[in-house]
Design brief:
446 residues, 3-stranded antiparallel β-sheet, alpha/beta, 17 strands, 17% strand
């Protein structure tokens, strides 16, 4: 038997089969975002199964981030199911158009890897990493601890993960269960906004300004039941926000009243930002801070260092042992050598990105366009209409990232990555952005 919903047939006898049928419909487009699903008893009667079977299927779908349930309002397909990544919200970039959408570092500012790779390979030939070796290279641990201590991060054990998002996923999974609520920055990192519902967790938006999350918005998220808070200390994606000293004190005060909160801090901007880190860690019982090498040393170096309270790091490391086991010792060796050699002049890199970012913000202001970009490599431009602005900029030769990739409830905007810009181009880009935001002239008929 089956239940016909629009043009799609929901089938199955067991909970897993029913859930798979609905998920297939969402993936194929047979069930559209926002589509209301039949009441559990009605679907159970049509399929000839126990209502508890349908309830279990809906629970599976909710935990996977496919549907959302709203009590008396029933269940419906999420507006953005977990199987639909935000990266799909993009316009094709035709040949000859400057692509400012990717968020990549400037390749000219990345260090050469040949010597570090060769030296790591030679060491591996003499002393290969085998099963049973420590998961964290002791030289990497020492260098990472020194850097974290210099930035005021509390002491704690270390783990190494395959990038920042891998670390955040493992930390959230170590403490939270499907259905729990996570406070996330809005606008915020699109990959994180996808990850949270994919884990079966519920995101609650927290508004940000140039100093990071607003304390009153964090308070509001806690009142709505948030059990965890994810904060980007600097180079916030997409707005460039950086948590300053006064804001950090305010946020610590909010967190002090919620000691049971899981705090996760993302310092992906380490190595490309000259603003100091203002860590919030240590206020709550469970906390984690992740420091990635992707922006300063290259996205293909899939490595991040994670520190936190003993329970959190132990849970992450324990679960990691049951999966990949460890992050490549060769890769850890390469990163140690890059760090110790001073291959990246962090201040020079920060100045380079800062000069481009600040020049663009000033040029936009000269055209009457407000923009945000306090740190990092991105500039956020509030706009009334993302689709129209993206299309007009594309015709002018620029590909901009639509703000829908990064938003939950915040107003529309565009993200412009400045790393591809050459000196002097910010004026042309600012003029074209201003033109793209002007209302279209009314058409004349007759």
């Amino acid at each position: 038997m089956c239940f016909v919903l629009g043009d799609y047939r929901i089938e199955g006898r067991g909970a897993a089969e029913i859930a798979a049928s609905v998920e297939n419909g969402v993936g194929s487009g047979g069930l559209a975002p926002g589509q209301a699903l039949p009441p559990q008893r009605e679907l159970a009667a049509t399929l000839g199964v126990n209502p508890n079977t349908v309830a279990a299927a809906y629970r599976m779908l909710r935990d996977r981030g496919v549907i959302e349930t709203g009590g008396r309002r029933g269940s419906r397909v999420r507006q953005r199911p977990a199987s639909t990544p935000r990266e799909e919200l993009r316009a094709d970039v035709p040949p000859g158009v400057r692509d400012l959408t990717q968020g990549n570092p400037d390749p000219a500012l990345l260090p050469p890897l040949e010597e570090a790779l060769a030296a790591a390979a030679a060491r591996h030939a003499r002393r290969p990493v085998l099963y049973g070796a420590p998961a964290v290279d002791e030289r990497l641990a020492a260098a990472a601890r020194a850097g974290l201590e210099a930035d005021g991060v509390p002491g704690g054990p270390l783990a190494v993960t395959s990038g920042a998002l891998d670390a955040i996923e493992r930390v959230l999974g170590a403490h939270l269960r499907p259905g729990d609520t996570v406070a996330v920055e809005d606008p915020g990192w699109g990959a994180l906004l996808d990850l949270v519902p994919a884990l079966g967790l519920r995101p609650v938006p927290v508004a940000v300004d140039d100093d990071g999350p607003l304390p009153e918005a964090v308070e509001g998220a806690f009142r709505r039941g948030a059990r965890a808070l994810v904060v980007t200390g600097r180079a916030q994606n997409p707005t460039g926000a950086a948590v300053g000293g006064a804001r950090a004190d305010e946020l610590r005060g909010v967190l002090a009243d919620r000691p049971g909160t899981l705090l996760v801090e993302d310092d992906h901007g380490h190595g490309i930002v000259d603003l100091p880190l203002r860590p919030l860690a240590g206020v709550t019982r469970h906390w984690a801070l992740v420091r990635s090498v992707a922006k300063a040393y290259g996205p293909d170096l899939r490595l991040a260092v994670l520190t936190g309270d003993a329970v959190t790091v132990d849970r992450v490391a324990g679960r990691q042992r049951l999966g990949p086991g460890w992050v490549s010792g060769l890769l850890q060796d390469v990163v140690v050598r890059l760090w110790s050699s001073g291959a990246v002049d962090s201040r020079a890199v920060a100045r380079s990105y800062g000069a481009r970012r600040d020049a663009l913000v000033r040029a936009l202001a000269a055209h009457g366009v407000a923009a945000h970009g306090r740190s990092g490599m991105n500039v956020w431009v509030p706009v009334p209409d993302e689709t129209g602005a993206v299309g007009r900029l594309l015709r002018a030769g620029w590909a901009a990232a639509p703000g829908a990739r990064y938003r939950l409830a915040s107003p529309p905007g565009l993200r412009l990555t400045v790393s591809p810009l050459a000196p002097g181009e910010e004026g042309t880009l600012a003029r074209d952005v201003a033109d793209a935001l002007r209302p279209a002239a009314p058409r004349r008929y007759g």
